[in-house]
Design a protein that fits this description.
By secondary structure, this protein is α/β, with parallel strands linked by helices. Helix content is 30%, strand content 28%. The chain folds into two domains: 128 residues, NAD(P)-binding Rossmann-like Domain (Rossmann fold); 89 residues, Regulator of K+ conductance, C-terminal domain (Alpha-Beta Plaits, 2-Layer Sandwich). The strands form three sheets. It has a six-stranded parallel β-sheet with strand order 3-2-1-4-5-6, with helices on both faces. A five-stranded antiparallel β-sheet has the order 7-8-13-10-11. A two-stranded antiparallel sheet has the order 9-12.
Length: 220
């Protein structure tokens, strides 16, 4: 898998190290020359000294052939521009952006980007997600990234339409905490039935997020 990371700060460094440990090909884009030198010395990855919001730097990094593009600078505006260029100009297969300010989450979601907050573990899960994450939103991380609050809207072709929660085997470490149906929000119990179009909000520990998304994303 080819990973492009924009932003060589602490989070970018951690993600790069995590991906390299998994034997993925990693390229980092960072505009601060001192950081570039440090990253090149500490990581077995190609480091491009450039601005990730500019087409030239993204092209030099091979964004067009990237399996996953991650924008994790300290600027939400830069993350937005970089992720938009990767998605629209370079057709990157999967685009993930960091939201430093929670008030910017909606803007990033509206523009079709999978949203992350500041957790290496959560970003790693999103990169390796086997289901389509385009319908999944990460709302928040808990306990330094060890748990997450996420939501997914059931598709029109969901295999779970009309199924009671008690009849769904949820992964260990996951809990459905609310269901949004139209303008109504409900706190479910075992007898609550879910339907196509419902937005399911869940708390997940570790890898249970991935397993839950597989279950809720199943189609008929």
């Amino acid at each position: 898998m080819k990973i492009i990371i924009v932003g060589g700060g602490k989070l970018g460094h951690q993600i790069a190290g995590s991906m390299l440990d998994r034997k993925y090909t990693v390229k980092l884009i960072e505009k601060d020359k001192a950081k570039c030198i440090r990253l090149a010395n500490e990581l077995d990855a190609e480091v491009i000294c450039g601005d990730g919001t500019e087409i030239e730097a993204l092209d030099a990094a091979g964004t067009r052939n990237a399996d996953c593009f991650i924008a994790v600078t300290g600027s939400d505006q830069d993350n937005l521009v970089a992720s938009q260029l990767a998605r629209i100009e370079f057709k990157a297969k999967k685009v993930i952006a960091r939201a430093n300010d929670p008030r910017n989450l909606d803007a990033l979601r509206t523009l079709g980007t999978s949203i992350v907050v500041s957790s290496t573990e959560i970003i790693t899960n999103l990169i390796e997600q086997e289901v389509d994450v385009s319908g999944m939103h990460l709302l928040a991380t808990l306990n330094k990234g060890k748990a997450s609050i996420c939501s997914i809207t059931l598709s029109d072709t969901t295999a779970l339409d009309g199924t009671a929660l008690k009849d769904i085997t949820l992964p260990e470490g996951s809990l459905i905490v609310s269901i949004v149906r139209g303008d109504d929000t409900m706190i479910p119990n075992g007898l609550t039935k879910i339907h196509a179009g419902d937005e399911i909000v869940a708390v997940c520990m570790g890898d249970s997020q991935r397993e839950l998304m597989k279950i809720l994303g199943a189609t008929a």
